[in-house]
Amino acid sequence: MADSLALWHAEHVNFARLLDLLEEQVAEFHQGERPDYALMSDILYYMRNFADRVHHPPEDVAYARLAERDPGVQLQVNRLLQEHCVIAIAGEELLNCLKEISEDVLAPRSHLEAATATYLVYYRHHLATEERLVMPRAAQVLTGEDWAAVAAAVPAGSDPLFGDDMLERFEVLRRQIDRVAQAPGHDPA
Ligand SMILES: [Fe+2]
Ligand SMILES: [Fe+2]
């Protein structure tokens, strides 16, 4: 259980770092600068391909088990499962927006800003709910057998950005993450 919870939390910390980087890029707009669209695309590519496809399946198992053990959290669990779908769609929308820009389609700037803001709000709210309400309850009520089922739902393969086998396309993004981590006053929690 401790390992599964630690990994679960560590992935949330990584996602939160990427959301902060995404917000930093959008803030460039307001300062009259041009955001790094390639970096934003890499963040979204990772979130769509790793967070949505690797992080969410074991969560889905954990939530189903949790609702069985504690029917009082059923409503909360239903909302989180719906949010997994909403987050995937909001991420795809943002990725499409970035693709249009890279193909020089004259998309209004406000469209990208709104898509990014929507994504940030949904994702941060989702992470906060999982960390504050659902994970502590799961730690209390899930059994060893439940945690084994959660671990078995993790798809094979390593994390392509934070793992040992980093994908080449993530080199620049990885450097940005390290830059923020080494900045004075950075809080890693
Ligand atoms: Fe989730
Ligand atoms: Fe999560």
TrEMBL record:
Ranges for domain Hemerythrin-like: 5-138
GO CC list: plasma membrane
Domain of life: Bacteria
Gene3D superfamilies on file: nmb1532 protein domain like
Protein name: Hemerythrin-like domain-containing protein
UniProt source species: Paraburkholderia caffeinitolerans
